Amino acid sequence: MTLVLIVALVTGAILFGIGVYGALSQTNLVMIMMGVELILAGALVNLVAFWRFLHPESYSGQMFVLVVMTVMAVEMAVGFGVAIARFRAKGSVEMEEAGDLKG
Amino acid sequence: MYAQAFFVAVFGLAAIGFGVVVFRTSSMVRSALALLFSQTAVGCMFLAMQTEFLGVLQIMMMATEMSIMAIFMVMFMMDPGGMGGMDMTHQKRFSIGAGVVAAGVAIVVAFWADWGPVTAEAPDAAMQTRALGIELLGRSMLIFETAGVTILTAMIAATAVAIPVQTTANSADKEDTE
Predict the structure, then answer these.
(1) Are residues A63 and B23, on separate chains, in Cβ contact within 8 Å?
(2) How do residues A47-58 score in pLDDT, each as one tens digit?
(3) CATH 3.40.50.10540 describes domain A2-91
């Protein structure tokens, strides 16, 4: 059984790594959001594996998965709202051209 | 046990493979579709781990979310089809390093940590859904309600941000054109 847990955790870790690469390397806002989605997908895999193989009697684990899914939906909604505002103001959602947002 | 490990590994490999394709293809629409397949594979992993409700929820939610993302891709990208072969990346070496270090540290923790006794049997699907419903409307109700209000706030905030700002200059321009 530990084998399945390890397989799931390694998958989650690799998805997290791919997401980190995507979020840091992409210049387009929508592509950066895709990277963040992959990071959260990695977290989801770990959470489900922990619930299933370590604490299937406690449903707080599944509750935590629902919270992370909520974060994914919120990230998409706010991200697209910002993308629309940025596109309307500057005609582009390229982060290379968003230096004026620096504090 | 081995069948479960096999299916979790197969869907895990599919999720990783499509995850890599997201950032490898020059077509942004293909990127959105690859992310959809990657998230669906993650949902299938949940099903293979006997977490039926969350698996179905993940697949349904991601199918909708990624379809919307594909539409936004076409709207906002300079080259959504990838026909121009534009390079849309920066600080590549640093990003690869950060990704490898992040994944490496998580893998080392996964192998070295003492996870304690592992449970072989999971509750059946009907039992899980019932228990999750009781959890949502019982002990975790405040968290559940907070999540709902957060989504509502995000929807209102996203709509408010997306509505064009009507300034005096804009109104004057509009009147001039009319």
Answers:
(1) no
(2) 999 999 999 988
(3) no
